Description:
Blueprint: H1 7-31, E1 37-42, E2 48-58, E3 69-77, E4 86-92, H2 97-110
Antiparallel strand pairs: 1-2, 2-3, 3-4
Amino acid sequence: MRYSLPIAETIERAKQTQVDRLAALYDQLVTFQPEPESGTAVGSDGTKRTYTSITYTYLPPGDGDKPLLYVITRWVSFNGDGKADVEIGVTGLPQDKAALEKIMDRAMKSAVREDL
């Protein structure tokens, strides 16, 4: 089989195409800043808790065979002073968003600090 372009040149063109595609994605990522969500909730012990959360999707590194992940990270203050007493993270598939949010809410309300 004969190639019209040398193999090295063909490989370089393919690499450049990938770099161009990734550059566009990188520009989007650099400008992406998730909006934190803040609020209050009552814990299972009856105390008021304040929290701040960020939610984002994440594509794990690899050969492109890994699924997009949905991530919720929440910092919770048990005494309302604005300082996080606990950090909670849940990760799953985007189609499981509703379940992940329920898991996060349950974890936030039931978390206890026993190191004090």
